[in-house]
Amino acid sequence: MIFIVALTVFGGIGTAQNVASGASKAAKVISTKNLKNSKVHLSKGYIYSTSKLTKVSHNGQNYTHTTFTRYSQITVKKSNGKQAVYQYIRAGKVKGWVWHSYLKSGAAPSSTYKVTAANLKTFQKAFLSYMNKERAQRGLYAYKEEPDLDKVAAVRAQQLTVTFNHVNALGQTPFEVGKSMGVDFYAENIFDDFTGRSSWNAVAKEEVHTYIYDDADSNWGHRDTMLSKDYKALGNGIAIKDGRLYTAQDYA
């Protein structure tokens, strides 16, 4: 199953699912053809939710390590008068129409995601940069990375691989975990994703975008934390288990 879940806690818990969208003039389907089901993977491009090609549901560059099943094919006449061939693919909850030349036969290459000191630093730097750009656009001061909070977030990310919740398997809240390490903080965002992004920079960019713009299901709790005037610093931790990526951000 492939999905994205994000939770935030400071006075409550919510969930958010990330779906990008766009709009254009509808394409006209000229012909339809069923294909023998086969494994394929994406090199790039967009995944459209319907054969009208009016709404982008996913960015293909985020799924280059995901194996899809190909089911059918359509030839469409686009609004510019040109014809194009699109194929329908699916992997768990991620599904839709993709231009055929963006698909490659066979299973996707394995993800090279590993949690190393260098990768963690890359992710932390990118996340902080993207978040502070959002804050700057709203006239807010920049958050700073706090090493002590990073240590707590690293522990919390590992705990998420066992129980994806703000309460860990021992029944401790994140704030109790922090206090046991001598660190006080006041809010936490957690994220659960598959390891299909093309780079750690892409992970950070997608995560910040999800928190800021696709957070309605959590009543915008993640966004409120990231754009708060009450906090000044954060810690960022990452962990991987069974092909899934877990991140925790703790704010003070």
UniProtKB/TrEMBL annotation:
Residue ranges occupied by any SCP domain in the UniProt entry: 128-250
Superkingdom of origin: Bacteria
One Pfam family of this chain: CAP
Name of protein: SCP domain-containing protein
